[in-house]
Amino acid sequence: MFDAADVGAESRFWAGLLDGTVHRDGDWHSVVVDGEWVIGVQHAPDHVPPVWPGGAQQQQVHLDLHVDDLESASMRAVALGGRMLQDVRKPADNPDGSERFSVYASPAGHPLCLGSH
Fold it and tell me: Could you tell me whether strands 28-33 and 21-25 are parallel, antiparallel, or unpaired per DSSP bridges?
C-alpha cells in the first residue's frame, strides 16, 4: 500500500505502469492487474514525499520492476507523472551483473527502479 496526498494521481500512475485498472472506494484505491489486486493507495492528506536516496523524510518502500524494454518503460513512467531520479546505468557500471536500470519517483514521490537485462 502507498500513501499519497493525491490518491488519484498515484493510483493512475501505478495502474498505467503495470497495465492495470483503478478501482475507487472513497479515500482508498486498488490497482488490479489481470483480475488480481496488486497495490493499494490510500489518501494521506499530510503525506510528505520521501527524499531519495537519503534525507530527512526517508523512503518507505522501494520497488524494483523488471521490464522487457527499458527505454519504453522509462518514457511511460514519465508520461504517467513520474520523474527520473537517476539516469540509466550501463551494464559496465553495475558490478552485480548486466542489468541496466533507472530510478524514478511516482507522483507521490515513492522511489522505484525500472530495470532490464
Answer: antiparallel
Structural domains of the chain sorted by starting position, each given as residue range(s) with its CATH number in brackets: 2-45+55-116 (3.10.180.10)
Chain position carrying cell 490518491: 7
Within a 10 A sphere around the Cβ of 105, how many other Cβ atoms? 21
pLDDT digits (tens, 9 = 90+) for 35-78: 999 999 999 999 888 877 777 766 667 788 889 999 999 999 99
| CA distance readout (Å), 3 to 44, 61, 117 | 6, 10, 31
In whole angstroms, what is the distance from residue 117 CA to residue 100 CA? Answer: 6
84-106 pLDDT, tens digit each: 998 866 555 555 666 788 899 99
pTM of the entire predicted model: 0.78
**What single DSSP character describes residue 83?**
E
- In 3D space, the residue among 36, 38, 57, 47 whose CA is nearest the CA of residue 4 turns out to be 47
Distance of CA 29 to the CA centre of its chain: 15
> At residue 84, what are phi and psi to the nearest 5 degrees?
-75, 135
